[in-house]
Specification:
alpha+beta
Amino acid sequence: MDKAALKDSYFQISQQAERLKVLLVSQLEHLLKQDGISLGVPIESRVKDWGSIEEKLDRKSISLNSLTDLDDLLGMRLILLFQRDSLAVEKLLNTHLRVLSSEDTALRLTDSQFGYQSKHFIIELPREWLNVPTWNDLGAIRVEIQVRTLAQHIWAAVSHKLQYKQETSVPPPLRRSINRVSALLESVDIDFDRILQERDIYIQQNAKQGKPDDLLNVDSVEAILANIFPAQNKGSDEALDELLVDLNYFGVKTSGELSNLLR
């Protein structure tokens, strides 16, 4: 199809893509919450505008039979708080959507490149979703979903702004500093995952089997509540830190005191 015909078809297809954007963001938010996966910021999403499509066609000298041949007509970005959740997100996408292809950009990096890292997935809607009337005309649109951590997103935004994507792009006096920043951001993800592992061990060994005279903290409060109340009582975003302040104010400061009070 020539460029003029593609442009004529853009309005209708972009309207469908806008509908898909709203519906898919809602579904992904539900699935992430259901699996306890924490986002650093709300899901980012956009439908590619005609100017960007035209520039891509000219720059890459490609031809399309339809705009639905584009892998990134609709793009979404999931920015996670913790790196270990990226595996859970990958499993979620493979379970609930049709993943056509995936790539980990970290595998592209060489010694002369900095730490831009992200996982990219090209997906289509599963057939069973297309049985729902509001979804049934959206099956031809592919979606690119990027998954990265908040630290990786900071680096991606900064390197895009400065255009420092590889060492040869950086003025020599700045290379040591920019390498240090890249390493620090990678360390943030590593250290956060280490904290989560240590927290899991603490909860297993201490919070659930603590002594009655142990001073309360957020994790021990959560463990005591979980031991006493049914699981369905648990909220999705409980303000345990505020509860701990209130308990201390009223003189409830140990695990034994809280357990006795609740019972």
